Amino acid sequence: MGLFGGSWGSTLALLVAIRQPESAIGLILRGIFLAREQDYTWYLEASGGAAQLFPEYHQDFLAPIKRRPSNVSIVDAYYQIFNSNNEVQKMAAIKAWCLWEARISRLHCQFDEVQLVSDLHRAISLALLECHYIKHQCFISEDYILQNVDKIQHLPVTIIHGRYDCVCKIEAAYSLSQRWQNSQLNIIPESGHSASEKLITQALCAASKSMSAFWLEQQ
C-alpha cells in the first residue's frame, strides 16, 4: 500500500509503515509532525516557536484558560474544559483552539472567523481530538518515530514541508530526512503548513505523479 498523509496524518502514515513495513510500498508526507515533546511545545506553549512568532494570537489562545494554576499545562487546562459539563465554556475553548491553529496555518492568513462558527462540527472534532491525542503524547513513546525509522529505510518517501510552517516545525522534516536514506526532502518556499497553499498543492501533485510512475515500474 502507498501511504499519504499531512500533519497528524504524516504521523499516522509513519506509524503504519513502521509497524507494517512489509505492507507499504512508499510514502508521500507533508508537514511532518513527529509527536515529540518539543513538537507539542513548539505548537502550544508560550515558550514555543509559534507563540514567539504570533504572540498576540497566542494571548487569544490562552484567554479561555487564563485562570489555570501555574502548575497546569496548556493542554491539561484545555483537556479539563473539553471534558467538563460547562457547554458555554467548552464552546468558547473549542473556538479558541481552532482559531489559534487556523491563524498560524498559512503564510498569508486568509481565515474568516465567521467560517469557524458556521463549520462548528468540524471545529469540535478538530479541537477535541487534537487535545486528546496531545494530552496522551499521541499514545507513543518519546521520539518513537525517529528511533524506529530504520525499519522503513528501504521504502521511498517524498517529504514536503513549507519553509515557514508554524504548526509543525521544519526541523522535524529535516531530522526525518537525515535518518532516512531513501528520502527526498522538498522544502517549499513562501509556504506555511496548509496543504491548500498553492506551492504545496503543486508539490503534492508532482510527488503523487512521480510516486505513481515509480510504483507502476515496480509491477
Give an overview in words.
This protein is α/β, with parallel strands linked by helices and 219 residues long. The radius of gyration is 18 Å and the shape is globular. The protein has a 4-stranded parallel sheet, sandwiched between helices. It has 11 helices and 4 strands, in the order βαβααααααααβαβα. It has helices at residues 8-19, 37-44, 49-53, 55-62, 74-82, 87-104, 113-118, 120-135, 144-148, 170-179, 198-218, and strands at 2-7, 26-32, 157-162, 183-188. The chain folds into 2 domains: 2-35 and 141-218, 3-Layer(aba) Sandwich (Rossmann fold), CATH 3.40.50.1820; 39-139, no CATH class. It is 54% helix and 11% strand.
How would the blueprint of this fold be written?
Blueprint: E1 2-7, H1 8-19, E2 26-32, H2 37-44, H3 49-53, H4 55-62, H5 74-82, H6 87-104, H7 113-118, H8 120-135, H9 144-148, E3 157-162, H10 170-179, E4 183-188, H11 198-218
Parallel strand pairs: 1-2, 2-3, 3-4
Organism: Paraglaciecola psychrophila 170
Domain AB hydrolase-1: 3-196
Protein name: Proline iminopeptidase
